[in-house]
């Protein structure tokens, strides 16, 4: 079963408003150093340097980072990490958790991340990365809440120069809810496979070929 990515739009808009206040209040504060394997790639967003936060070296595709060098492996963030409460303070009626906390529930129900590259074209390709201990999770260094993102589960091969589109899907064995509210369309994901964010258009530009 699939749910439209439009259902996540209110949540993403809500977090955009939250970020305005968080960034304003932390801009002058010293930030702790983050463990990183970024190796020169730095995707800078309102949520910080994503390469440093997730500890990955690949170029990251987001609305803030819409370019990838040819010859480089890459990943797509699609949207912000999934933020959760520290407890099930608010949940929809009938929701059945699979753990004592929203994070435990997410880890128990998340199945895989899927990337559909250039959908609807002759070049369409699909890549699926099952969940594993490589899944990034932890307290977000800026927001502070527990967060999860499957961006660390796998990387995508270099692409030809030109414009490309990627749609990201998250898969769940059962409905997961974040404990922050009781509106399913905003605070829950799944069951099944859902688009996480809208399709992302990005450009592959000429660059040095990297070793494979």
Description of the structure:
The chain is of the alpha+beta class and 212 residues long. The protein has one domain. Helices cover 17% and strands 29% of the residues. The chain has four helices and 15 strands. The chain has helices at 9-26, 50-54, 102-109, 184-187, and strands spanning 44-45, 48-49, 59-61, 67-69, 74-76, 82-83, 110-117, 125-130, 136-139, 146-149, 162-172, 176-177, 188-189, 192-195, 200-205. The strands form five sheets. Strands 4, 7, 8, 11, 14 and 15 form a six-stranded mixed beta sheet that branches. The protein has a three-stranded antiparallel beta sheet with strand order 6-10-9, with no helix packed on it. The chain has a two-stranded antiparallel sheet with strand order 1-2. The longest helix has 18 residues, at 9-26. It is globular. It starts with 8 loop residues before the first helix and ends in a 7-residue tail after the last strand.
What descriptors fit this protein?
alpha+beta; 15 strands; 17% helix; disordered N terminus
Write the layout of secondary structure elements.
Layout: H1 9-26, E1 44-45, E2 48-49, H2 50-54, E3 59-61, E4 67-69, E5 74-76, E6 82-83, H3 102-109, E7 110-117, E8 125-130, E9 136-139, E10 146-149, E11 162-172, E12 176-177, H4 184-187, E13 188-189, E14 192-195, E15 200-205
Parallel strand pairs: 3-5, 4-15
Antiparallel strand pairs: 1-2, 6-10, 7-8, 7-11, 9-10, 11-14, 11-15, 12-13
């Amino acid at each position: 079963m699939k749910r439209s990515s439009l259902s996540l739009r209110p949540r993403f808009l809500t977090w955009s408003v939250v970020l305005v206040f968080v960034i304003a209040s932390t801009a002058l504060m010293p930030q702790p150093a983050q463990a990183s394997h970024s190796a020169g790639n730095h995707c800078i967003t309102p949520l910080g340097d994503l390469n440093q936060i997730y500890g990955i070296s690949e170029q990251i595709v987001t609305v803030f980072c819409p370019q990838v060098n040819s010859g480089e492996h890459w990943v797509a963030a699609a949207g912000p990490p999934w933020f959760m409460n520290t407890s099930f303070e608010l949940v929809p009626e009938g929701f059945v958790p699979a753990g004592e906390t929203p994070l435990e529930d997410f880890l128990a129900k998340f199945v895989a991340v899927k990337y559909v590259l250039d959908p609807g074209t002759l070049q369409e390709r699909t890549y699926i990365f099952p969940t594993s201990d490589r899944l990034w999770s932890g307290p977000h260094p800026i927001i502070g809440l527990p967060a999860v993102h499957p961006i660390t589960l796998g990387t995508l091969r270099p692409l030809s120069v030109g414009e490309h589109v990627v749609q990201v899907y998250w898969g769940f064995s059962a409905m997961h809810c974040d404990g922050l509210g009781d509106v399913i369309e905003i605070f829950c994901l799944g069951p099944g496979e859902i688009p996480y964010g809208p399709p992302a258009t990005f450009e592959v530009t000429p660059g040095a070929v990297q070793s494979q």
